[in-house]
Amino acid sequence: MNSILSLFALTFILTSKSLTLLGKDIRIQKQFEILTSITENSTSVIASRKDEFMASHIILNLKERHIYVYQNSEVIANYKVAIGKEGWETPKGNFSVMQMVENPQWKNPWNGRISAAGPNSPLGERWIAFSRQDGKYVGFHGTSGEHSMGKAVSHGCVRMRNKDVKELYELVGLGVPVVVQ
């Protein structure tokens, strides 16, 4: 458990002009430790884009290092992923999608540098949070290191190819159940 909590020392900067939540634009305040600031230069932070989405639930099989996206009992998409390495394991359990961000920026917790948003960012082009423990988030995100798919190399998050996480982003919405086993 301590290793999982250590994962959350990572700091993210998510950027947007506004957050749309249930049809209302609201200003964002510091909601949790890893969300350190919202700037005016961003692409978007989208909490709820549509009333309906295709996925009914997601299963992440850690042993297979694969995500299965379901619509009821039918697999509608699946992706090879990278998961948390030893000491930084991806948490197991039942979760749900709780945050979705396009073009997130990342602040390196060790040197304070902020990466530019986009496909070469450590977070790639999308962030989909599904776990929150002690104010810290874990989620699916893109990566510039697409060669890492199928490996246990992350600090607990689930890395995906940018094209795959962009597709997943369109299939899911807030509240979609995520089972990590």
From TrEMBL:
Record keyword Transferase present: yes
InterPro entries referenced in this protein's UniProt entry, alphabetically: LD-transpeptidase (IPR050979), LD_TPept_cat_dom (IPR005490), Transpep_catalytic_dom (IPR038063)
Pathway the protein takes part in: Cell wall biogenesis; peptidoglycan biosynthesis
Pfam families to which the protein is assigned, alphabetical: YkuD (PF03734)
MF annotations from Gene Ontology: glycosyltransferase activity; peptidoglycan L,D-transpeptidase activity
CDD domains recorded: YkuD_like
PROSITE patterns: LD_TPASE
Gene Ontology terms: biological process: cell wall organization; peptidoglycan-protein cross-linking; regulation of cell shape
Domain annotation L,D-TPase catalytic: ranges: 56-181
Location of the active site: H141, C157
Keywords: Cell shape, Cell wall biogenesis/degradation, Glycosyltransferase, Hydrolase, Peptidoglycan synthesis, Transferase
Keyword Glycosyltransferase: yes
GO annotations of cellular component type: extracellular region
Family of the protein in this entry: Belongs to the YkuD family.
Protein name: L,D-TPase catalytic domain-containing protein
